[in-house]
Specification:
AKR; NAD(P)_OxRdtase_dom_sf; Aldo/keto reductase; TIM Barrel; eight-stranded parallel beta barrel; two-stranded antiparallel sheet; alpha/beta; NADP_OxRdtase_dom
């Protein structure tokens, strides 16, 4: 599988990366064996870049991913996690309630999340992530969803990441969000190596093209794209599908079905077109695909390998369905 490096960091990433929110019981429970099998299948497919966060399953994703990777040569893969949410024991929680579904995860609420973009919070978060992972280091650290904490993130958390990078504790730093506008500010105003942009450079949403992607190219920064299926509708567009974690509206569903029809006229599954679309941009280093089973990550690897003719992209642009890259 092709790989490249993030910005000027020298930190390698494979073209397809494994997103570990799913094995943190996103939306529904995943057995331990299935979670381990998903990581094994990613490895067998050539994936060597893995992404997690404390937020995912209140630490379950980090524990499972660390356990699955622990027997692999540490220099053979790149691991990213995130800071900004600290996990603290919740003494009042019913540990068998499993009601963290309010935050999207089918796990007991033994912990609560506390926003913290302070310098001390950054260091504490990384230390606790390493303990859950059971590994000696992470390679990439992203500021996680600082949407409502922007000033503290820029003033305190980001400089803390710079110091950790200078010390050699981490190789690359950045921010990960479900929006493009603040990520463009990180690219423009800081020395991040990369940003992780979820859902904003897809076949249905190209807001990242307005500012983020041009800034990244101009400044030699890398962009990792997540959410290429927009939480489901671009994997299987049908009534009841989800778009940005909510029920899809009819207008978006109609657009997705039109895109599917164009793709299939060129002999390309919609999933393949959705996955390959971001990789056409010179700023994009990797596409992050979440998986909760071996079958899902095997399918993603197969879709990445499907040849997509230029005529498909041209027709989508001519139909006004996507902006030209």
């Amino acid at each position: 599988m092709r790989s490249t490096t993030l910005g000027q960091s020298g930190c390698p990433v494979t073209e397809l990366a494994f997103g570990a929110a799913g094995i943190g019981n996103l939306f529904s429970a995943v057995p331990d064996e299935a979670a381990a099998a998903a990581v094994d299948a990613a490895w067998d497919a050539g994936v060597r870049t893995f992404d997690t966060a404390p937020h995912y399953g209140l630490g379950l994703s980090e524990r499972r991913l660390g356990a699955a990777l622990r027997g692999r040569p540490r220099d053979a893969y790149t691991l990213s996690t995130k800071v900004g949410r600290l996990l603290e024991p919740d003494e009042d929680a019913h540990k068998d309630s499993g009601d963290d579904l309010a935050d999207g995860f089918a796990v007991p609420t033994a912990y609560r999340r506390r926003w913290d973009f302070s310098a001390d919070g950054v260091r504490r978060s990384i230390e606790e992530s390493l303990e859950r992972l059971g590994l000696d280091r992470v390679d990439i650290v992203y500021l996680h969803d600082p949407d409502d904490h922007g000033e503290q993130a820029f003033r305190e958390a980001y400089p803390a990441l710079e110091r950790l990078r200078a010390e050699g504790t981490v190789r690359a730093i950045g921010a990960g969000m479900n929006q493009a506008e603040m990520l463009a500010r990180f690219v423009r105003d800081t020395d991040v190596d990369a940003v992780l942009c979820a859902g904003r450079f897809t076949l249905l949403d190209q807001r990242a093209t307005a500012e983020l992607l041009p800034e990244a190219v101009a400044r030699g920064r890398s962009v990792v794209i997540g959410g290429v299926f927009n939480s489901g509708v671009l994997a299987d567009p049908k009534p009841g599908a989800t778009y940005d974690y909510r029920a899809v509206g009819q207008d978006v569903l109609d657009r997705a079905l039109r895109i599917k029809a164009v793709s299939e006229r060129h002999g390309v599954p919609l999933r393949a077109a959705a996955l390959r679309f971001p990789l056409r941009h010179p700023a994009v280093a990797s596409v992050l695909v979440g998986a909760r089973s071996a079958e899902e990550i095997e399918d993603a690897a197969a879709m990445r390998a499907v040849p997509v003719p230029d005529a498909l992209w041209a027709e989508l642009a001519e139909e006004g369905l996507v902006k030209p890259v």
